[in-house]
Amino acid sequence: MVEIIVNYHHASDTYIAEDAHGNQITFKSDREANDAIPVSQNRTIGPMLSLLMACGACSAIDIVMILGKQRQEFSELKVIVSGEREQDVTPALWKKVRIDYHLKGDLDETKAHRAAELSVDKYCSVLETLRRAGAEVSYSVSLND
């Protein structure tokens, strides 16, 4: 199973997705430009892996937006995305995607869970793309762990 970690950085309002080898892509929630800015480290990331990174960043953007509207303050957001691809077929699509949200701060647990639910089930376009391609999507929320 592949795992991606996305960390939100308040100061720059960016979302940095990283794989197990330290490869990173920095995402910005600027909906006007809608750009992903690669961080050059003389390494490469495969397209399917970058899709998981985009999934984590897209959902993290939703979480920050929803928690802001709920007037919930947090000091840290980490999104861990794991995925499992089909075996012995071409193309090999993502068949399972799991998103684990880790939040720190003075948060109402019900509102944090609602933010995750809204992202996964309603707002995250990347997750919906994966779901429509047949991926089974699951998630969890951990507070102050």
From TrEMBL:
InterPro entries: KH_dom-like_a/b, OsmC/Ohr_fam, OsmC/Ohrsf. Gene3D superfamilies: 3.30.300.20. It comes from the Bacteria. PANTHER family: PROTEIN YHFA (PTHR34352). This is Redox protein. It comes from Moheibacter stercoris. The lineage of its organism: Bacteria, Pseudomonadati, Bacteroidota, Flavobacteriia, Flavobacteriales.
